[in-house]
Amino acid sequence: MIRILAISHQNERLTDIPITEIKNTDCKWYWIDFNRPTEIEIEELSKTLQFHPLAIEDCIHVLQRPKLDFYEKNTFFVSHSLHRFTLEKEEINMFLGEGYIVTFHLSELGEINDVWNRLMVTETIENWDPSLVLYHIIDKLVDNYFPVVYQLEDTLNEIEDNSNEKSMEELLDELFDTRHNLLTLRHTVIPMRDLVYRIVNSHRLDLLQHRIEYFHDIHDHLLRLTEKIDASRELTADIRDSYLSLNSHQTNKVMRILTVITTIFMPLTFIAGIYGMNFSHMPELTYRYGYFVIQAIMIVIGIGMFVWFKKKGWFR
Fold first, then answer.
1. What family, per the record (predicted)?
2. What pLDDT was estimated at residue 124?
């Protein structure tokens, strides 16, 4: 679907203009949105709008890394939208030129719809231009990264507190899943940060110079996101090391107790082994109270070793 919104010199909204007539329309500026376009509609990028073939190729072949390319008549932007729950990335391609902006995306995107609907109802239409549309789209994309970061931070806090008393295996599985999601998020945020950094430091984007402070604000948000993601990744490493250390400590504790028990039974097993031998001439075997004496000796040895190990602190 292709939808077109043109703003006349009288600041009126025009939406019934065919794409083939848009360049001949006397308007102040226009926005063309390619929303899940068909093959025939994609051909309009080259046939009617006459964009560079390399830019059109980048639109068709997803997922491109967020980037900024300069062409003779326009500037081409690649940015990413992030699904809040699945963390799947969706590519948004934008062409910014003198008096127009063109957006291209193969999926329905809430960020584009939000800006489009806002532009359709705003009373200050005279303040809008293609650069402001570009700013609002990128700003929406970045704003939607924050809930994902906050959600992952909450997950880490739950793992650290373990209020649900989950097992060590479950906690580690959740921890590694969260760490993987943080890595996925980082692979989205950092390229977007680099893209916005190029925007605010480029001397070739004359169309954006009067709004460059807006993009500085977006860049600050991306820096905050990067810091939060890196801090969360460090926290996952700390939690992982703590759990592994705790698990190792518990294992050592169990092994120590088992070692103590084995050590206590070693002399008892030795005594039982001696009197379990089938020799004919063993004086103790004919002694009337021999059994009770040996049992008493074994009990004394067992209790004595237990008390000694306890004083040494091996049962703590």
1. Belongs to the CorA metal ion transporter (MIT) (TC 1.A.35) family.
2. 85
